[in-house]
Amino acid sequence: MKIILTGATGFIGEHVLSFARIHPAITSILVLSRRNLPMMHPKVKVIIQKDFLNYSDDVLEACAGAEACIWSLGVARSLSPEDNRRINLDYTLAAAETFARVLGSKMEGGRKFRFVYLSGMMTERDQTKKNLWFMAEARLIRVGRPCDPQSSSRPQCLLEQGEVENRLMELQRQLPEQLASYVARPGGVLATNSFFPSLLEPLARAITVDDLAAKMLDTAINGHRTQIVELDVLRDEGKTLKKQLLKGKKSPSD
Q1: What is the C-alpha separation between 103 and 98, in angstroms, rounded?
Q2: 8 Å CB contact between 144 and 209
Q3: Among 8, 11, 193, 204, which has the highest number of CB atoms less than 10 A from its own CB?
Q4: Rounded CA separation 196/198 (Å)
């Protein structure tokens, strides 16, 4: 299976890449990155992509045959509203729609292109909240307020108020034969060798980065029973998947 990966130079993306390299189901990894990677691997091909809003014919040709994308590109720190929107919203939706239309339309046997989106910590689905004291802009941009389907201004609402998670769901409704989108919603993400006791992870709403990476990779390969993959599921299934992957197994059912 061939997959596309973004954010591979980041904290979470690099762990996804490490697991993808050793996963027996993954035969090819196309990394879209602003800069080259320091490592070389026979499964990995890096495409330098400066513009994540537009994809050239050459890039799409390199993507041909990919069945899924793990999108871990984004920013968690507070930037200007324009930068947050461009990086977290516009880049994500441009990629999801392009890959679904170009790659998903060529998939056969009822298969759909899987797009796995790494959502932000503490994202807020209720866009009416005004008293978010921490990273308010980033938390609101990563998710969205549902628009009234009966409203005549719905297209404008989707453009101006609908944010990443809801827009991905809307895109899937528009392209039901080409796209299956999934949203991973971790809490605090801990380093693999963190001194934080694993028994306290549920209380702290935290997950180790390798457990998160293992579950995101499995979702790209096998899908998931729901579109939104919450923290508890990411952590519990991720631990099992990680152990089995490191033992040479590709999924809990094997």
Answers
A1: 8
A2: no
A3: 8
A4: 6
- Which residues make Cβ contacts (< 8 Å) with residue 212, sequence separation at least 6? 12, 15, 184, 186, 189, 234, 235, 238
Q: For the chain, what is the radius of gyration of the CA atoms?
A: 18
- Report the alpha-carbon distance of residue 111 to residue 14 in Å, rounded: 27
Side-chain-side CA neighbours of residue 71 (13 Å): 31
Render pLDDT for 73-103 as a digit per residue (tens, 0 to 9).
876 555 677 877 888 889 999 999 999 999 9
**Cβ atoms of residues 45 and 28 within 8 Å:** yes
Q: What's residue 87's pLDDT?
A: 85
Note the pTM of the prediction, 2 decimals: 0.81
Q: 207 near 229, Cβ under 8 Å?
A: no
Residue with tokens 């980041």: 10
Contact 19, 211 (CB under 8 A): no
Strand-pair category, 179-185 with 113-118:
parallel
Residues 181, 171: Cα–Cα separation, whole Å: 9
- Residue 9: burial class (beta carbons within 10 Å; 0-12, 13-18, 19+): middle
Please enumerate in sequence order all residues whose Cβ is within 8 A of that of 253, keeping only pairs 6 or more positions apart, or say none.
none
User: In this predicted structure, what is the pLDDT of residue 201?
Assistant: 65
